[in-house]
Amino acid sequence: MCLRYIAILYFLETALWIEKCIIFLNKSRSVCIKMKLSVVIAAYNEEYNIEPLTSRIIRILDLNKIPFEIIYVVEGNDRTIDILRRYQQKDPRLKLIYHSVPLGLGNAFKKGLMNISKESTHVLTMDADLNHQPEEIPSFFEAMGRKNADVIVGSRYIQGGSINQFPFYKRVISKFTNTMVDLLTGIRVKDKTSNYRLYTRKAADCVAKKIFFPGFECVVEMLLIVARNNFKITEVPIQFKWRVHGTSKLKIFKTGKGYMWLFIHYFLKF
Q1: Which of 38, 114, 37, 111 is nearest to 74 (CA)?
Q2: Model pTM?
């Protein structure tokens, strides 16, 4: 009698455990189905980098079963757009916006952010020159879930982050800009000029509506926007690798002038 009673209890506990597992799996499956990532990339004459970048993004996102689309805002007159159009025939998850005359990084990102799918729940921004390693994308999602953050910044300047063969003039600009933004705004993010970021949809929509500056200064402006709108920001370490092919589009004087106007705008209107 006692053994029968124990067997019944064991059966009921096992059934209850199986039911909880089924509920958990259904919830997990529901989350996976509902989640969608939009990767927004501005590409200006990146014909030698664009195909390996695209292949690596698709490979890592498919491997991690993350539904996605890649939105390329392409500028310039090299073969970048032709390469992407051929790739798009194989994989319709690519969306292309093309301008032969460059609009500027800020305008390109605004166009990309305004064209993300209605179903998208997250937005990733990154460079087109293979500075940023697509294989690190899962760590952004892990950190967002673990820290309950709205924006994850891929940082070169926190523990675990690194920079490989970064030109001296760009180090100076990056460090100076980070220091100035720190002093003027108090935003406690180590790498404010990193464009490798994961946003929640709500944070990305906020940026899309408010972004104003057309050039490289938009990267800092986007961070200022989310900070001023009380979105939680945190960082994950990244391995930054300097481009092998092509040339940097950053112009020192023009970028410096853009940052100056950004700081003025921040205090007068932001």
Answers
A1: 111
A2: 0.81
Length of the chain: 270
Q: Is 64 left (phi over 0), alpha (psi -120 to 50) or beta?
A: alpha
Q: Residue 100 CA to chain centroid, in angstroms? A: 24
DSSP 119: T
Phi, then psi, of 153 in degrees rounded to 5: -105, 125
Q: Mean per-residue pLDDT for 190-213?
A: 95
All domains in the chain, ordered by first residue:
35-268 (3.90.550.10)
Can you tell me the distance from the alpha carbon of 70 to that of 49, in angstroms, rounded to the nearest whole number? 15
Look over the chain and give the mean of its residue pLDDT values, rounded to a whole number.
84
d(CA 147, CA 198): 13
Q: Find the DSSP H helices in 70-210.
A: 80-90, 105-114, 137-147, 168-185, 201-210
